[in-house]
Specification:
- By secondary structure, the chain is α/β, with parallel strands linked by helices.
- It is built from 8 helices and 11 strands.
- Helix 2 packs across helix 4 (74-88) and helix 6 (210-216) crosses helix 8 (226-248).
């Protein structure tokens, strides 16, 4: 009899434990009660602290990093931060992303007083990059946000727009060979602005004033309404920005399981002398290949 009672108690205890486990799983944060699959998808922005650098240095066994608290290269930073993220967010599910700001040794040009010559100097500067968890591993996402300031002389903007002007000039305005200027073509008289898509490396912005385009290139725009002129240049800009990205960022490559994007922020000069900030985005679909993300060309409100 005592033996039978003992068996009954053991069975009852097993039922209680199994029932408790079921309740625990249903209420556990990070689990879906229907599928029991982790749903801990993190979307965070963090800036590394001194304590974080020390933790990373411990994980990587890097005494130099522990002392200096900055990374010596982008590739090493990506390697270290990936290891750190795995340790810091062990329950993070695939699809999680963390944008990390960290200090990295960066070279820049400086002008020597008195001589006017430039020399290279290196010092740690803040860098911000996104990391994503894919197939159980944290990976650096090489997506880029490129901002083209509307400032005369700005090197970044001038280089970007100049690549477009050269491309438009060769493709459309020089059918008879390089240097054969085509009056009435897309380039203006100073050859610093093109009205195929409106890019200007003189003003470092996009010129979308219909009257100016009609005056410069009447053979194309003369019979259009102002709205049609601007719409045409906007469609053309999808092409010209892809060209400039391809020439300026030819080493960009897709990453398996990840959408690598290039977002370009720029300023458009519109009717009524309005300066309107715009954005456009491309997906990297091959080495140096950029495909427009439909609907991404729009003003920034």
């Amino acid at each position: 009899m005592k033996k039978m009672k003992l068996i009954h108690y053991i069975i009852l205890a097993a039922v209680v434990v199994l029932t408790s486990c079921g309740d625990f799983n249903e209420n556990l944060d990070g689990f879906d009660k229907d599928t029991y699959k982790p749903t801990d998808v993190k979307k965070l922005e963090v800036e590394l602290t001194d304590a974080d650098y020390e933790k990373i240095a411990s994980l990587m066994k890097d005494d130099d990093l522990k002392a200096k608290k900055f990374f010596i290269s982008g590739s090493y930073a990506a390697q270290c931060i990936s290891v750190w993220l795995k340790q810091k967010y062990p329950t993070a599910d695939n699809g999680s992303s963390v944008t990390v700001t960290y200090r990295m040794l960066t070279q820049f040009a400086m002008r020597t007083t008195g001589t006017g010559k430039q020399s290279e100097k290196s010092e740690p500067k803040n860098v911000t990059n996104p990391f994503e968890k894919i197939a159980g591993e944290w990976k650096y996402n090489p997506s880029v946000v490129l901002t083209l300031p509307n400032e005369k002389g700005n090197v970044t903007s001038k280089s970007f727009y100049n690549r477009i002007i050269i491309w438009v000039n060769i493709k459309y305005d020089e059918p008879n060979g390089f240097g054969q200027f085509n009056p009435g073509g897309y380039l203006n008289g100073f050859a610093d602005t093109e009205y195929f898509s409106g890019c200007s490396y003189y003003n470092n912005r996009v010129e979308w004033v219909a009257a100016d385009a009609k005056s410069n290139t009447p053979s194309v725009y003369g019979g259009m309404t102002d709205e049609e002129v601007v719409a045409t240049m906007q469609r053309n800009l999808v092409t010209t920005f892809a060209v400039s990205l391809s020439e300026g960022f030819g080493n960009a490559e897709p990453v398996e399981g990840m959408n690598v994007t290039y977002t370009v922020n720029f300023v458009a000069h519109m009717e009524g002398n309005k300066l309107v900030p715009y954005t456009i985005q491309y997906l990297v679909t091959g080495k140096g290949e950029f495909t427009y993300v439909e609907g991404s060309l729009k003003p920034v409100r």
